[in-house]
């Protein structure tokens, strides 16, 4: 008995010591120490609750997360004077009050977060920061407010403040991938390349499913680090007095003169294009604001944006496009700066669809150059108007020569990318009219190879259920399929490959159950029955399948 009493006493004293330590830690000035103390207190509450359930009785304890413990210290002035049970009962009451306040503050913090997000979306980053900060006054441990504010700080170029917020977000949740992402961006902007890589690598360690995104982030670091080195080398070459380097700088200064004639600028750009022989000159073009000098020049802007271009405007446009090709050839940083220019999202698709053949050809050449790397394709998906780009590429079906095959071949390569497929599914209603227009073309006069590739793209995309459902539900699209099949039947020798590809698309559409139109299904069946009389083994094989 004496031994049991001694054990109980020792257990009681141990509880008192632990509780006293928790109180001291909850009153600490270090928020991290406070949070750990809160966690340990809640853990004790849960353990005590489990023990009480095993004894056949239960005292209800509120397990809501406890906020910083100033009031808890006031509730219990001296832990040595009360029993652990009394202390926990007092703590439970305090926890209920804190939980109520926390729920109220959470509602306010969420509302402020939404206000901040709306301000951020409009580009009002200062207001966004103010809203996020006010939200953090309500909820100190709300990690999303820290990461959102860090993102806004990055937009304003306040990278050190962004890093501080990322640190706080990681204190709230050490596995917060958004915090590591924004931390990586901030270090990248500060040219701390190795640290930026470490941040991005941490993302893949926390969540291996994000490996693909991490790979892209790592490539961005590589591109910027390489660009930084290029600029240091180019600066040294310029200081050495190399003729092409000095000429590049002088030509850009000449082209920066405002209000000159279009042909003045065209002549200067032709000379500048000839100078762009290697990476040094390309880098100097970037360093001396070459992209802004060209894109922000009012005279050149009018030439590039005019709907009906005269001979001089056409000359200027062709010259600009050739210069961009020379500047961006095998230079990923220059490609990034070109595509990121605010006007480029609509300008390149517009030039690609221009009536002037020379402009279309040079635009296509530039686009082909950009799509040679994954980095370039990523820039296109992220920053160009993809709907207008698709329409512009499809318009090359107007030509029966190599240009059509080249343009549609480029579109085929883009369509293989997962990002294209995601975009396609999200924008299918707006894209369907252009695809329907392809099916309405005359297969006899249209480039057969290019037309087959277009239909094959549709067939591949229709294999996905959501896309197939949209296509099947569009009556005009279905009728266009039947109409093209009828045209092919009229001249099967010329249209054999188109027929093969079209039947593949229509087979996919038939997978949609129930049929959007029984009339369409019956007409398709009737036409397929007539194809059974064909002597073409390939068509018969498709029908048997």
Model description:
The structure is a single chain. This protein is an all-alpha fold and 545 residues long. The chain folds into 4 domains: 2-103, no CATH class; 142-224, Alpha Horseshoe (Serine Threonine Protein Phosphatase 5, Tetratricopeptide repeat); 241-367, Leucine-rich Repeat Variant; 385-399 and 414-545, Leucine-rich Repeat Variant. The protein is built from 29 helices and no strands. The termini are far apart.
List keywords for this structure.
cilium biogenesis/degradation, 29 helices, TTC12, Leucine-rich Repeat Variant, 4 domains
Taking all Cα atoms into account, the compactness measure Rg is: 33 Å
Category from helices, strands and their pairing: mainly alpha
CATH topology of the largest domain: Leucine-rich Repeat Variant
What general form does the structure show?
Answer: flat
Q: Report the mean per-residue pLDDT as an integer.
A: 84
Return residue spans where pLDDT drops below 50 for at least 5 consecutive residues: 52-77
Largest sheet: none
Helical content class: over 70%
- Total helical elements: 29
Number of DSSP E strands: 0
- Please give the CATH architecture of the largest domain: Alpha Horseshoe
> Which CATH top level class of the largest domain fits?
Mainly Alpha
- Report how far apart the termini are: 88 Å
List the domain count as a whole number.
Answer: 4
Strand content: under 5%
Order of helices and strands: HHHHHHHHHHHHHHHHHHHHHHHHHHHHH
